[in-house]
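quick one
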Amino acid sequence: MAVSMHLVTERLQLRPWTTADLDALHQLWSDPTTIWWGAHVSLEQTRELLQQIEREGGWWAVEYAGQVVGNVFLRPSHHDPEALELGYHLRSPYWGQGFATEAARALLATTSGKLIEAIVVPDNARSQAVVRKLGFTVGGQRTHAGALHDVWQLQRS
Ligand SMILES: CC(C)(COP(=O)(O)OP(=O)(O)OC[C@H]1O[C@@H](n2cnc3c(N)ncnc32)[C@H](O)[C@@H]1OP(=O)(O)O)[C@@H](O)C(=O)NCCC(=O)NCCS
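structure w/ coenzyme A:
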């Protein structure tokens, strides 16, 4: 996937994060409802995340009506070099509109012949609903950051 690629869906624009997005990324990552496992309390933490995003690739800013409303990534899996990992995070005022599913579906459509994984804690009902709608099924469990997660999988043909 070309790094400079932009994707347009019915309601959203997906584009790579850039260094100019520090404030927008911080607004997303300091929202404690969204980043429930450890929202950022300083801009420095977000600066480090932006550097991680540049290193990893596969992270996309999700824009709606000219505003950054979230993030979606389809990045190389940290566990399986052959697989990609899907993740999504929306600013909490934008939940309940189908944006995460719409953004993830567009990104998945750019892949073929790949195993896609999503690592979800069993009580994250909203996230489970997203992967279910996208056709993922639970393929196992994995301890990640000290907590047991379901490993949801989708084999793209
Ligand atoms: C996970 C997360 C992205 C899901 O957000 P979400 O808004 O619930 O998910 P979707 O974008 O798919 O939206 C689905 C909802 O939009 C509603 N919806 C409204 N209009 C819609 C439309 N046009 N199309 C589809 N769904 C629509 C659906 O009915 C559903 O609402 P409900 O949950 O009240 O039934 C969000 O909860 C989040 O950011 N959580 C914190 C971060 C996180 O846990 N990430 C995952 C880590 S594994």
